[in-house]
Amino acid sequence: MRARGASGAAASLWSSIFLLTALLWTTPTVYAKNGPTIVAKNFENPPNNLNYFKGSNVVLFQEAYGNTIWRSTDGGATWSKADGIEHDKAAALVMHEYDPKRAYVLTRGNLHWKTDDQGETWKTFFTDAYTSNSIDTIGRWMSFHADDHDKILFTGMDCPFPDLCEEVVMYTKNNFEDDAKFLRGRTQGCWWAKSSPLFTTGDDEKDKQRILCIVRGGIFSPQEDNRLLISDNFFSAEGADGVVQEYEPDLNGNGAIQGIVKLVEVKKFLLVAVTSRNTAEMALFVTGDTVKWHRAVFPRDHPILESSYTVLESTNYSIQIDVRTSKRLSNPMGTLLTSNSNGTYFTRNAEHTNRNLESFVDFEKVSNIQGIFLVNQVDNWKEVEEGKADKKIKTRITFDDGRTFESVKTGDEEIHLHSVTEMNNVGPVFSSPAPGLVMGNGNHGSHLKGYWESHLYISDDAGRTWIEGPKGPHKYEFGDQGSILLAVKDSEEADVKNIKYSLDHGKNWETAELPEGLSISPWTLLTTQDSTSLKFLLTARKGSRASPTGFYVISIDFEGLHENTCKDNDMEDWFARVDDDGNASCVMGHTQKYHRRKKDAMCFIKQEFKDPAPESSPCDCTKADFECDFNFVQDGDECKPAGPIQAPEGACKGDNPDEKFLGSSGWRLIPGNVCKRTGGDQKDKQKEWSCSDAKSSPNAPGSNKIEHVQFPFDGDFDRFDKHYLERGDLDSEDGETIIARPYKMVARAAGDVFVTHDHGKNWTKAKLPGDEGIYAIITHPYVKDMAFLLTREKKVFYTVDRGRHFDYFEPRDEPDTSLNRVPLAFHPDRPDWLIWHGKKCRSKGDCYLEASLSTDRGDSWETIKRNVIKCEFTGSSAYKFRNNTQILCLARAREDNEDNNPSQLLYSDEFPKYKMSVALENVIDFATMAEFIVVATENKTEGTLNALASMNGRDYAPAHFPFNFQVPHTNAYTVLDSSTHAVNLFVVTEEEENHRYGSILKSNSNGTSYVLSIAGVNSDKSYYVDFEKMLGLEGVVVVNTVENKGSDSEPKKLTTRISHNDGAEWGFLPPPGRDLDGKEFSCSSKNGDESCALHIHGYTERADHGKTYSSESAVGIMFGVGNVGPILGDPKDADTFMTADAGLSWKMVKKGSWTWSFGDQGSIVVLAQRNTRSRSISYSLDRGETWNDYNFSDSEVVITDITTLRSGSSRNFLLWGHQGDKLFTVNIDFSGLASEPCKDDEDREKSDYELWSPQHPLQPNGCLFGHRNQYLRKKKDRKCYNSYKLQHLYNVENCECTRQDFECDYNFEMDNHGHCGLVEGLQPLDPEQVCKDKPDEIEYYEPSGFRRIPLTTCKGGFEADKVLQAHPCPGHEEEFEKARGISGVGLFFAIVLPFGFASLAGWWVYRNWQSKFGQIRLGEQSAFNSDSPWVKYPVVAVSAVVAVIGAMPLLIGSLWRSVSSSVDRFRGARDSGGRYDWLRGSQRRYTTRDSFARGRGDYAIVDEDEGELLGDDSDDEV
After folding, report:
1. Secondary structure (3-state) at 825
2. DSSP-assigned beta bridge partners for residue 866
3. Is 624 within 8 Å of 585 (Cβ atoms)?
């Protein structure tokens, strides 16, 4: 039995071995398949935004139109709808940038979904704010912390009115486990400082929660007002004072800078792009820790222009940027620049790089290998610049980080590859993490051909050598660390039936058919981010690319294709960079070696989700491992100082300039470089310097003299056409440029165009590329670098660099020079976007205007509309409620010139193919002013002129004018300066030509409801109006009114009025007490009144309408020419007056009429007598306290004008004049009077600057529009100059509301006591309308007669519009009751406390009646007996009643403030950005004006008996 048993055991063993062998032989993992497994899944809508969860085969995507979220757990072989999501509400899929298990599905509302387990389960989260739909925000709704994955910023929006939304940012510290909290409002993006794993502030605590935000100046503010703010506690208040913890970093060493437009994270750097007014040039500021910032310095011939630079994929030790340098925008080219290791100095790497119109650049690094990248360059760049040829593009590659470049070759023949500007797939173009493997579509030959003519090329040595692969263009991907190369032929039609793959680095290719005869047009091909997977995803279309009929997601799986997993003998060591001899070469002080599969090995690596890691070996240090140290610049083989040498601490403390110290050699080892130092001296060895090298040379001592230079102009001319091209605040170029042309008025003859770059000291003739005559010069209204010189032909000369170079473009048609209208229109944000109005003629005398659009500064044109009157860009980045590309046109309804062809207002938001839609019929004209579009239409039946207003450019609401204010006949409106969030509309009420005047109506914040601001305002024949705002201050307005309104037989009698609250209340100008000789005037008044005031000549009497009373740079200073008396006198008898406190007090400064100009930001004021023979000017350095004369000529000449930079920042002035029949200019330079720059200090005693606040004459607390502004002004006694642009507005403090923050509501009028009463027979506006306009509002108030002034920012206090009963908005009744409910405790105090206080007050009155209440004793006691019961008890009772009545409003107000403070729209709302106060004052100023719709007919005179709805002209109101 044992033997048998033994024999049985042996048999059993062999049976087991046989069975195991058979099993091994038949298991799928043993045999290689004939090809990959391919599974196709059909979808109705395009599969958009495919995303792998990193380190897994789980994939999510969203259907582009159906919104459905799909999930696959097996790399795309099978799909199911994500469970737990309402797919019809899904608006966007967002993957967590750093957490491989998290994703988010955003809705358009404030309730969204998130997953923490790669989409297996989903749950909701609440952001409070709705998802932003701003074009600029799409795709960047969420910002993730690189270390703490629970910390997320969410960008949403708040919409106080329909279509009027502003960006807000919410935050979470626990991945939205709790509701999101409010971070900050009015943002243009917020970022964690720790947005990149490589970036650090250098402080672990700050890394955890430091946030940077770009904050807009206001809801209607331009980008130039944007600020960068930093907070370390989520913009919360640190203390009980409620002050929010936020600060502006010192970017340039002179304090904070405005104009922040972008923030970009690049490896270990943060870059901030800054723009400024007047220029397209931008500045880039770089930081490595958010504490120390410096401006990036570029080669002087490569300025950074808006929309012309691209931050490229950079290294850990430098930043790479491509800057557009070509003149021809239709064929853009650039220069590749690389920074030193701290991002300070940039040097050229490659010229003439290929760019496209979207600012993409043909540049890409080979993944994971330092020092190798490919660029495409334009070979025939000269011909392209001249517009004579299309680009001929060559591909070049560098292996030494851009120091040298070489051709890309297969054998001895060059190849050229399609790159980033022609993206035909997702992800990197050429390479992946697969070590050394590179693929690309291209061709042999001298230059790159079209994409459809290309073939696939492959390199397995990081681009050094290439082989040709399959014919035709392909989508391609890398798998299994390069073991698999997959390619799918690209086609515009659905004719692709197979895929190709290579297992030997592209040497041989196999074909696999798509299942079931499927025929597709490929869309994208992708795999896992690390290219380690054996699975791929192909998305494709059914039907053609242009007209798809369905969509596929196709899974391609190579699992099991080979029988073995790679072993050590299947692998090789591959060096990333080798020299010509094949030896490993060094970059950043080390070599890179990868362990990768041999190309002919029959195996797969099968290490999914494990990135191939390089092995590094240090190299000996060489010259290439060093760079110029900070504040040194490379000059050939040397690094030379660019500024003072930094001395070590303790050195150079004395005054001995010859003292020595050891400092930088000028070189330093590149940070991050790991080279091995060998024996001997290194380039960064310290060297000896003198202390004289360490100290900046003192400023040249001022000459203490004013200097002048005269320049004569030849020719028989009598005037100048002059235009300043003022550089921006951040412009790197020096100089003060003017373009001028002498001309003769009567003969209409003009001379040559001259240019000066030194403010008139030297003039040269402009070198124009043609000899066509110039009939007009136009400067770009938004970018002062640019000017356009119009000819009468199809040619326009222009300059983009302030007259240094000129080019030209050719519009389709010549301009219509008979029209008094500029043929060009300009976009506020896109300097190269132009609209041209050209004259086309069907036959002689039958002509019309055609509007054409160019987005490349005239290189190409597209028709917008025929038979137009005018077209304008109305889109702007300042107005989020309006499409940024919007165009409005006024055009004829039909394409003929018949008299009965009415005009239409049309708009289009459909860039780039503008399809115009009709907005309004029977339109007379339209005007844009600030955020408003105001339109005048004609009622043909009634013959009246109607006004309408819009903010979004699509929807127009009729303007509701005050009672009895009708315009019976078509005539004219004038839209005045409307920079304070309200339209100021002038309506003529007396049409008699020599006695014309009208009323100024002021709108609410959306331009639809108007009240009368002031009547009888003077107008001239052209409908220009005596209306002017004081520049640099809010709400200060000066007008001239006609006092003899009813008298047509005598000349106008004008008086000057001033308002300090944007037209709500008006007063007279207070006259000075004495004249220049110390004599009293013929009348006197403390504040100005009807019998005596200062009156000044206004806008309608100016020879130059560009001249203003004031300047933005000279805050609070205003000049005027006029007289003291009851009315404005003759200009010939006028004297010159000024105020330095915004019109509260005035003084006479010169006898006679003088013209003025402001310099050095208000520190220098220059006066000149105009059109009077003179040889001197007068100037003041202390805001008009004292005046000095300066002789600029030996003989008397006639000065016609004095000018300087409009910003008032220059210390140079230019006199324009003539001596006999010869024109000349005189430059007057005040620079010698001060050599030291002014310095600001927190200690105001030490500072060269003072803080000044404007006052309101009726508000002693200094509050204006609900806040108290403090402005920075140079002290009058300081002898220094302003070396940088001052941010004049230094501080803003909100105030409690008072009566002055409110104006009369629609259909209400102000009585003589300042109260607003309803006009008899009229009804107030529907108060419930606020609920319709603001769906989130929970309540509305019965009309009180008051409404908030749009500019005010006041909080609490006396809110005149909320004094009557409140009612719930429909649908918000429960919230209303909850908000206004009062607890039992509150009710107890509300009842008991007033009576308790009343009793105490009554007893106190009783006890103190006789002795304490100020009896008037005239030497005897009163006979009144306070102890009499007929007196005592009534007094107690009356006192109690009075006390209760007096206490109740205080009590109710206190209770209401307590309740209402808890009803914030967003949790944690705070002031200074904490509350959603969307109508805060904008700091933008507009000084333009427009008049339109000038026809015939008469206006009805406004019935003065109806009263003025915003103020009365009586003395009682002043």
Report:
1. strand
2. 850
3. no
Put the strands of the sheet holding 571-575 in their side by side order: 571-575, 590-597, 615-618
Whole-angstrom distance, CA of residue 152 vs CA of residue 141: 10
Which whole-number Å values give the CA distances from 588 to 348, 618, 685, in the listed order?
19, 9, 19
**Residue 919 tokens, joined:** 């907005």
Q: What is the mean pLDDT of residues 1053-1059?
A: 95
CA distance 683 to 782: 49
Note the pLDDT of residue 1022. Answer: 86
User: Is the separation of the CB atoms in 1040 and 1055 below 8 Å?
Assistant: yes
The Cα–Cα gap between 403 and 627 comes to 13
Nearest CA among 109, 157, 161, 137 for reference residue 952:
161
- Reported as a single tens digit per residue, the pLDDT across 1387-1435 is 455 455 555 555 554 444 444 433 333 332 223 333 334 344 433 333 3
Our measurement of the distance from residue 1403's CA atom to the centroid of its chain's CA atoms, rounded to an integer in Å, reads: 64
Distances (CA, A) of 1171 to 308, 1006, 1108, 1218: 46, 45, 18, 10
Residue 217's identity, in one-letter code, is: G
What pLDDT digit, counting tens, does each position of 792-841 carry?
999 999 999 899 999 999 999 999 998 888 999 999 989 999 999 999 99
Taking the mean position of all CA atoms in its chain, how far away is CA 663? 43
Secondary structure string (H, E, C) spanning 1220-1265 = CCEEEEEEEECHHHCCCECCCCCCCCCCCEEEECCCECCECCCCEC
* CA gap 136, 159 in Å, rounded: 17
Give φ, ψ of 1301 to 5 degrees: -90, 5
715 residue type, one letter: G
Helix (H), strand (E), coil (C) string for 1417-1464? CCCCCCCCCCCCHHHHHHHHHHHHHHHHHHHHHHHHHHHHHHHHCCCC
Is-contact 953 888, C-beta < 8 A? yes
Return the ∠ at Cα 1354 (arms to 1353 and 1358), rounded to 5°.
150
Say what the pTM is. Answer: 0.78
Identify the CA nearest to 478 among candidates 506, 515, 498: 506
Q: Return the CA Rg of the chain.
A: 38
Q: Which 8-state DSSP code applies to residue 433?
A: S
pLDDT at 779 over 50: yes
CA distance 1292 to 1472: 10
CA distance 1143 to 186: 33
What SS3 class is residue 773? Answer: coil
- Cα 243 from Cα 1472, distance rounded (Å): 8
Enter the tokens of residue 305: 């222009």
Contact, 1287 vs 256, CB < 8 A?
Answer: yes
Report how far Cα 938 is from the mean position of its chain's Cα atoms: 37
Closest CA to 1337 of 491, 115, 158: 158
Of 811, 828, 814, 821, nearest to 862 (Cα)? 811
With 0-12 / 13-18 / 19 or more C-beta atoms within 10 angstroms meaning exposed / middle / buried, residue 944 is middle
Locate 35 and state its tokens: 């090809």
Encoding tokens for residue 697?
A: 């040379």
What is the C-alpha separation between 1136 and 154, in angstroms, rounded? 57
Distance of CA 1217 to the CA centre of its chain: 41
What are the φ and ψ backbone dihedral angles of 1454, each rounded to 5 degrees? -65, -45
Q: How many helices (H) and strands (E) does the chain have?
A: 8, 101
**CB neighbours of residue 376 within 10 Å:** 29
* Burial annotation 312-327 (CB, 10 A radius, 16+ → b, else e): bebbebbbbbbbbbbb
Query: Which parts of 664-817 are beta strand (E)?
Result: 667-669, 687-690, 707-713, 719-725, 737-744, 749-750, 754-756, 764-765, 774-779, 787-791, 796-799, 807-809
